[in-house]
Each structure stands twice: as C-alpha cells, then as structure tokens.
Amino acid sequence: MILVFALLLTIAVIAFTLSVRKRDLPRFEPLSPVAHLEERRARIYENLRDLQFEYRVGKLSEADYQQTKTGLQQELVGVLAEIDRLQGTPQPEPPVAAPPPVSGTVCPHCNAGFPQPLKFCGECGKPMGQGGAN
Ligand SMILES: [Zn+2]
Q: How much distance in Å is there from the Cα of 98 to the middle of ligand 1?
C-alpha cells in the first residue's frame, strides 16, 4: 500500500513538474520585428569567428573552412536583407551622376563643341546660326 502511495506521489510530482515547466516556459515575444533576426545575425557572426579560430588552430581543413564560411556568409546576407526589408530602411540611393553637360552648340563648320550657345564659334569664328543660316 505504501508502495502504491509512493508511486502515485511520484507520478503526481512528475506531472506537476511537467505542467509547471510547460506553463513557465518563457513566451518568446520579440521586442521588434527584427529582434530574432538580429539574434540570428549575432549568432552567425559568432559562428564565423569560431570557424576562423578553428581554422587557424588547424581543426578544420581549408575545404571545410571555405565551405562552412560560404554557407554562413550566404545565410548572413539573407538575414541582413531581411532586416533591411523589415526595418524599411531605404536603400542608399546611388550617387546621382551629374548629368552630362548639355552640348550647347556644336559649330556646324568645324564641329567644335561649346557648353553654352554661342553666336560665333570660338574656334573658327564663323557664325553659329541655327539651321546654319549662312
Ligand atoms: Zn567653328
């Protein structure tokens, strides 16, 4: 009888422990939509560091190192892109190239180009009329 009681008690304790553990599991609520991504990014950086270290101390072969590194870097690229997308970070605008200077005028006589319209060609001195009014 005592044995049965002990058994029941044990079962009760186990059940209690399990239920408590389940309930107390911290619910994962990301602080920001990218929190888990930043965590992943940090872990990838960490892995890369570890990998480099292991390679340096000779634990990894060159091929293994390169393969793992490439994999991690690809994952990192994906994570970074996802972070950018979620944060709505505007992609840095490519520097706007200065528009090519408007070819103001090209002398119809000598083909010399000038940035601004001229009445007379600076090269040959002939009048640069529109349509070549001679
Ligand atoms: Zn000219």
A: 27
Do 48 and 70 touch, CB atoms closer than 8 A? no
Residues 127 and 109: their CA atoms lie apart, in Å, by: 9
Distance 128 CA to ligand 1 centre (A): 7
Same domain as 83, residue 116: no
pLDDT tens digits, 62-90: 999 999 999 999 999 999 999 988 887 56
Quick check: is 23 in a domain? Answer: no
Query: pTM of the entire structure?
Result: 0.43
CA of 120 to the centre of ligand 1 (A): 8
Specify whether 79 is located in the same domain as 38.
yes
Same domain, 39 and 90: yes
